[in-house]
Protein: Triosephosphate isomerase
Organism: Daphnia sinensis
Amino acid sequence: MAPERKFFVGGNWKMNGNKKEIDGIIAFLTAGPLDPNTELVCGVPSCYLEYCRQKLPATIGVAAQNCYKVPKGAFTGEISPAMIKDVGVEWVILGHSERRNVFGESDALIAEKVGHALSEGLKVIPCIGEKLEERESGKTEEVVFSQLKAIIEKIPLDKWENVVIAYEPVWAIGTGKTASPQQAQEVHGKLRQWLSENVNAEVAQKVRIIYGGSVTAENCRELAKEADIDGSLVGGASLKPDFIHIVNASQ
Ligand code: 13P
């Protein structure tokens, strides 16, 4: 991680937890100790957004795990950025691989969501990443660049400070098969280079690119040492007290 970029750790709870379990997570996060040099954000199920925002310390961000692309209307089952902001929440994760691959969200839809969420004043964590067969057939760069291209077209230059990009290779999510620090760094470095060529050098230098996929208390420090890895997006391991080690991985 480069010193000019603040280390960022997201806990993506996915569809896990109930009030009792969430109280447990809030308790270990509140007890810490958390490195004040890490920006920490918890991605919580939508029905618990307000509960978590009220119970978590103000120093810990809260994120929705998805939202729709318009402020309101006849879209049964969806929530809007305006609603997320209305309950005091600052962030949204968009384009997670489970949204793409389980719910069939396209690059175009994800890009529209990113643009709308930013215009409504939310901070956004857009996710990209290749599947195993894409990596094995040498298409990793092609896939992640085209996912990113759709997204950057909807990000106005003055909104980049509200964006944290998550690179999550699909084959590493929930599988215990973490990308090696070298594998992850290789993609992060190429993403930053691509951003410098396709947005500008300043954005490329400043934007945080975090890694997700089977990050644990054991592997987080090696990942954090890589030059272009600015933190992590953590699924399973964010539900357990060991998550504190991941938050503090850059110490
Ligand atoms: P795991 O950490 O459980 O592999 O999940 C990663 C992820 O999808 C975070 O968004």
